[in-house]
Amino acid sequence: MVPIDEESVPGGVLHGDTARDIARLTDPGLTAVIVTRSERPDWLDELAELVVSRRLVIARTTLTAVSRDEFADWSRTALADTDRAVARPLLEDMTGIVEQVTATADVRRVMVRVFTEAPTRRCGFHVDTVPPQAPTTGAVRVYNGPTTEYVAGDDVRSMKDFYAYLSHRERVSREAGTGTCGGAAASAALGPLIALDETPSFLRPHAPVHRVPPDATVYFKHIDVRRHWSPHPVTDAWIHRSPMQGPPRLVLNVSPAERAPAGPGRGPAGHG
Fold it and tell me: What is the pTM of this model?
């Protein structure tokens, strides 16, 4: 089984706390910037209780192209029955992440995915994509429970090996019903899926899997969808996965949904 490293920060990942740190994702060797709070506010503990007890439930939702204000409006509706002491700071925090992505990517509209669910084997190691020519900086925030797992670029054999692994895992995952469906065929396929997750073939021997610290937002590199499945440099995208088990979690994922405008002296829209 691949070891989990919860302490060290590998090369290619930066611990930062400012917009300037996040903007450094344009650096060729940097794949992610992890931003943590200096202190944990009390409302996060209250939020965790609501999510784990299923008193706050947000069905898996994808908002394909929303502005910061449109997302805020959606959030107010989604949190209408939630205690104001939790709903208000949560709305401000989520909206702040959306605003940071739009500012960093220089776009008005983003895709937002948000849900409260217990982890399953639905989401193994992968890279996130953006539309053609969209900026490539997005964000993920896990508000409670086990956090996102990721690998260091130096520990990846090659993107060719990674995409071969991803293709194989997607096929096995479909056969297993992502571990959420019954039946003999699904049960038979679950063993190979677990083996793929526990010993990822695209990693070098003895390479660990790293885990994002609690209470952190990760701003990270996506890949232009046209380059997905191609042998691009490992440092062009952040390889990560959801945890495989644990209690229900609130997860927010934000990515650019449009090209950045070309301005004077900027030339074509950048890739973030």
Answer: 0.91
